[in-house]
Automatic annotation (TrEMBL):
PANTHER family: NADP-DEPENDENT ISOPROPANOL DEHYDROGENASE (PTHR42813:SF4), ZINC-TYPE ALCOHOL DEHYDROGENASE-LIKE (PTHR42813). SMART domains: PKS_ER. Residues 8-343 form the Enoyl reductase (ER) domain. InterPro entries: ADH-like_C (IPR013149), ADH-like_N (IPR013154), ADH_Zn_CS (IPR002328), ER (IPR020843), GroES-like_sf (IPR011032), NAD(P)-bd_dom_sf (IPR036291). This is Zinc-dependent alcohol dehydrogenase family protein. It comes from Streptomyces gilvifuscus. Residues 1-21 are annotated as: Disordered. The keyword Zinc applies. It comes from the Bacteria. Keywords: Metal-binding, Oxidoreductase, Zinc. It holds the Pfam family ADH_N. Its cofactor is Zn(2+). Belongs to the zinc-containing alcohol dehydrogenase family.
Length: 356
């Protein structure tokens, strides 16, 4: 089979790789029908995630069909259509017993495309399949479902739930990329008074408006003042950092009101300064986190009922073997307008979206 292989910072290729097989009784092998590219994959290619060894197949999100299961797998069987979660969970360790699957100590956590071969291939081995794949409702198409493997649970859990968004809040989302847009969409579920989106790209700010942002701000044009003006000088109740740079994190800490929450979602490749000399007196809560995907079943039900605009984030589709072209388009989002790219023969043929 073929897969997209990381060969070190700045080096990757779509190439022949060994077929996966069952290694442990809890494994499943999935034929990949749809896969997407994550901003974290771009961080890996830049060398920001040194744990990823050269030779690893990248990718941690997919929709596909079960083709083989280990003897201990109970919840799925060959022929089932499933979502492959970005997080693998053993279900037995102390963290999994608290539904903190991202911190699994039983061989799970963020494993696919990180510590083991991932989903950007024709087939993928999924460890601990009972908790790491989800049967898909028949009404949910692949291009929507694949966005529930990572970005929607990440935005919802690490951004909205960690930030404790409540009715009547002012929520500022810094970064209107895919995760930031998903945070806007899921924050709206809690009836905030207003949601403010901050980004550099006009196209992303337009997308933010379409997903429910009440106000938008160019990051170069003093968004902190806009938030202050909207809140009588207090600042936002919840600020969600969805970029992952020192500048955006520090902006978020200046934008939050006393007693507010800063929920960091962005993947940081460089240190950021924590200005405790200003923050110590403000009763500010700052949270970080890797997604647990404990909310995935709920999000799947909402998407199947048409209550979650997952498909609205897909701007480009490609056949699976156009992985290198898809990475180029996704990596040049400022030029291409890409939000999420989805690869797979079924999704490429079924959806007419721009691919250049």
């Amino acid at each position: 089979m073929k897969g997209f292989v990381f060969h070190g910072p700045g080096k990757s290729s779509w190439q022949e790789v060994p077929d996966p097989g069952i290694q442990d009784p809890t494994d499943a092998v999935v034929r990949v029908d749809a896969v997407t590219i994550c901003g974290t994959d771009l961080h890996i290619l830049k060398g920001d995630v040194p744990e990823v060894r050269p030779g690893t197949v990248l990718g941690h999100e997919a929709v596909g069909e079960i083709v083989e299961i280990g003897t201990d797998v109970r919840t799925v069987r060959p022929g089932d259509r499933v979502l492959v979660s970005c997080i693998t969970a053993c279900g037995r360790c102390a963290y999994c017993r608290q539904a903190m699957y991202g911190q699994c100590r039983g061989g799970g956590g963020w494993a696919l495309g990180h510590l083991i071969d991932g989903t950007q291939a024709e087939y993928v081995r999924v460890p601990h399949a009972d908790l790491s794949v989800h049967a898909l409702p028949s009404t949910l198409d692949a291009k929507e479902a694949v966005l529930l493997a990572d970005i929607f649970p990440t935005a919802y859990e690490v951004g909205v739930l960690n930030g404790r968004v409540r009715p009547g809040d002012t929520v500022a989302v810094v970064g209107a990329g895919p995760v930031g847009l998903a945070a806007i969409a899921t924050a709206r579920l809690f009836s905030p008074e207003r949601v403010v989106a901050v980004d550099l790209a006009a196209a992303r700010l337009d997308a933010a408006k379409g997903l429910g942002a009440d106000a938008v701000a160019d990051a170069r044009e003093d968004p902190e003042q806009l938030v202050a003006d909207l809140t009588d000088g207090l600042g936002a109740d919840v600020v969600i950092e969805a970029v992952g740079t020192p500048e955006t994190f520090e902006m978020c800490t200046r934008m939050v009101r006393p007693g507010g929450h800063v929920a960091n979602v962005g993947v940081h490749g460089a240190p950021a300064t924590l200005h405790l000399e200003d923050l110590w007196i403000k009763n500010v809560t700052i949270t970080t986190g890797l997604v647990d995907t404990s909310s995935t079943p709920t999000l799947l039900r909402m998407a199947a009922a048409g209550r979650l605009p997952a498909g609205a984030l897909v701007t480009h589709t490609f056949p699976l073997n156009a992985m290198e072209e898809a990475y180029d388009v996704f990596g040049r989002a400022a030029d291409t307008g890409a939000l999420k790219v989805v690869l797979g023969e079924e999704t490429h043929e079924a959806v007419a979206v721009r691919t250049t």
